[in-house]
Amino acid sequence: MKDSDAEDAVEQLFLVVVAIDFGTTSSGYAYSFTKEPECIHVMRRWEGGDPGVSNQKTPTTILLTPERKFHSFGYAARDFYHDLDPSESKHWLYFEKFKMKLHTTSNLTMETDLTAANGKKVKALEIFAYALQFFKEQALKELSDQAGSDFENTEVRWVITVPAIWKQPAKQFMRQAAYK
């Protein structure tokens, strides 16, 4: 079998390709079934988005509980955090526009921290892993709803965009967050 034939055989194991666009200001995802690669579906219904407005992306914001557990991402995170009483919000960990920390940190490691709005620090790897987990769950739920049966992670080829200007450590960091 030629290499191209082997690649085609491997490709057919995936039923869908999901591409996550993890942006500085906003993020989103799109997917395409391998049987109809020219038909690209873009996520347009984000929890907490403005009523009656169709948005392809949601803000790149994440909210962790005071116990440092994932609470929400995007519009839902932004709205929940801003609706908290100020005396309560100081206990929550809210991050926005945190992606560029990977590009601007000169000595980026897997131990690099991000600072929440309340000044508390959390490992950047944990924040990025939570965000990618959110997108994974959203995409699998949407695919399962559309298919009428549970979609498995193994049926998906995952793609995560990274800026071309990023140095290798930032790209490797994103890869590690995806593995996590």
Automatic annotation (TrEMBL):
Species in which this protein is naturally found: Callipepla squamata (Scaled quail)
SUPFAM superfamilies: Actin-like ATPase domain
Record-given protein name: Heat shock protein 12A
Domain of life: Eukaryota
Gene3D superfamilies in UniProt: 3.30.420.40
Alphabetized InterPro entries for the sequence: ATPase_NBD
Transmembrane segments: none
